[in-house]
Each structure stands twice: as C-alpha cells, then as structure tokens.
Amino acid sequence: MELKRYGLMDIGSNTIHAVIYELDGQKWKKVLSEKEYAELVSYVEDGQLSTEGVERLCQAVESLGRLFAALPCEKTFYFATSALRSLQNGDAVLQQVKLCTGVDIQIISGQEEAYYDYVSLKHYLKQPKALGLDLGGGSGQVFYYQDGQLTRSCSYEIGCLRLYNQYVSGVLPSAKERNAICKRVRELLQSGDNFSNTGMDTLYVIGGSGRACAKLFQSLQGLGKTDDGCWITLPQLKELLTTVQELGLHGVRIMNRLFPERLCSIFPGLLAIVTVAEYTGVKKICIIKEGIREGFLIANILEKD
Fold first, then answer.
1. Are 266 and 209 in contact (CB under 8 A)?
2. Buried b vs exposed e over 180-210: b needs ≥16 C-beta within 10 Å?
C-alpha cells in the first residue's frame, strides 16, 4: 500500500504547530513536527488582532508552511482555534493571511475543537467513557463521553496565556492574582454544562499546558518520561503549585530552563487544571501526548477514507 503524507497546521493562541503525518492504512506516524511560539492572544486589543499580530501570524504561517513544500503532502490543512475565532476583525485577518501567504485558514468553533479532542482521547484510551480537558493558550475544552459517544462538551476562555494576560502583573501570580484566576475559572465552569456529576475519578488532560505541567512535575520529582501518560494525583498537583511558589526565583530559573517560552503561562495553566479537577470531583490527572491534531487527522482523513 502506498504511504500518504498529510500536513496539518494548528494555529493556537500561544503556539502554531506544523506537523506532517505519514499514513499506512489506519496507522500513522509523525515524520516532521515544528512549532513557533507566536503568542497571538497577546496581540489582541479590544477584540481585534493588531497589525503587529497579523504580521506575526503571516510570518509564522509562511515560515512553517515551507515544511509542507520541503516534504510534499497529499493534502494540507490549516485550522485555527481560540486564537482567531473570537476576533471582531477575524474576516479581515483571514483575508490578509490569504493575501500574504496564499493560505486559507479554517476557523473551528469551540464545539468542533471539543469534538476533535474527544475523537483523539477515545482513540488513545480505547475506553467506553472518559472525562477530558484540552487546555491551550486561549481556551479550554472540557468534555465527557460515554458508551463511545460525546455527551457533554463546553469551551471556556480559560487558556493559560489568556489568564496570564488578564490577571498577572509579574512572572508568578501573587496570592490575590491566584485567587482571581481560580474564581474566574470556577465561574466559567459553572456557567456551562454540569461536569461535576460524571462519577469519573480521572481527568485526562491534553494540550501544551498539560504537557508543560507533566514536564515540570517529572523534573521536580526526578522522574523520567513515560509513553503511557503522566499520572498525578490532585494532592500532588496542589503540592506542585505550592512548591513552585515557595521556590520563588529558583522556581523561575527551573521553569525557564525547562520551557522558557512558557515561563509566564505555566502557573496560570496549573491553576486552571487544579480548578477544573476540583470542580469535576476527580482524584487524579493523566496527561497524555495526543491531542486535537490527532483528532482532526482521524475525523477528516482516516474516517473519511
């Protein structure tokens, strides 16, 4: 069987990822993966992406798009999530990107994003039911599936970089800022579907914020990486928050060494994960590598084929 390659560019609020997958029937592997930390949500002013932000977006799309030319693909997909969907000048931004790069970007809704997250998690776990959280830079999707069907999903503006920009004045949030972040996340969770009565004891976390959390936890615990997910109990996650806060400048140095590009956003991300875990009543968190891109690949390529 002839192998086929597909290119996906995921334009998020914090990072822009370009990935090339090679498909062999219903199996796939990543053959190329690159990303840029564009931090697009930081360029949003009064609901509009600034001129500088549009230029940053065009530069990243053009730069990462060269990967698809270097390794020709059967088809390429460009999609954006929270970074662009809530913009007041979204249509103008898409037109400018098309003019500068020749690329058409598909904006997916919060519900579509949650659906792709569900597809990815169900494929990874191969379990009939699960509770998931996809936490990115601009938004977070909480979803629950049962009997193999997505039954509840909501998208909230609780992305780690968005929370940092809204509430934090320094590198690490103060006690007052931490409380404000947690309060805001709880308020948004309570405004959507009820995820507090699923009876699940595990929250599966996907997305860059979760992976950074796992990396920090494994580093401070002296643990090696695992391929089957990083398991953290809720008390351990709370202890991680306390430890980083108490380490102060030394904690900042550790995070700067591990992921300099997420230095400011990791702590708000941890607060959001803890708040979601408390709200949903879970006892442990499992952070996995697969995410929205794999869900998009399955739903738009594998299932259609």
1. yes
2. bbbebbeebbeeeeebeebebebbbbbbbbb
Give the model's confidence band at 43: pLDDT under 50 very low, under 70 low, under 90 confident, else very high: very high
CATH of the domain spanning 4-107, picked from 3.30.450.40, 3.30.360.10, 3.30.559.10, 3.30.420.40? 3.30.420.40
Q: Is the CB of residue 286 less than 8 Å from the CB of residue 204? A: yes
**The tokens of 17 are what?**
């990822």
pLDDT 10s digits, 243-277: 888 877 787 888 888 887 887 888 999 999 999 99
pLDDT, residue 261, reads: 82
The percentage of residues in the chain with a pLDDT greater than 70, rounded to a whole number, is: 97
Q: How far is residue 177 CA from its own chain's centroid?
A: 22
3-state DSSP of 104-151: CCEECCHHHHHHHHHHHHHHHHCCCCEEEEEECCCCEEEEEEECCEEE
Contact 194, 268 (CB under 8 A): no
- Roughly what angle, to the nearest 10 degrees, separates helices 249-258 and 208-221? 120
Q: What is the DSSP letter of 2?
A: -
Mean predicted confidence (pLDDT) in 220-225: 73
pTM score, whole prediction: 0.92
Query: Among 3.30.450.20, 3.30.420.150, 3.30.930.10, 3.40.50.300, what is the CATH number of 110-287?
Result: 3.30.420.150
CA angle 153, 285, 37 (to 5 degrees): 75
Q: Cα–Cα distance between 138 and 85 in angstroms, integer?
A: 10
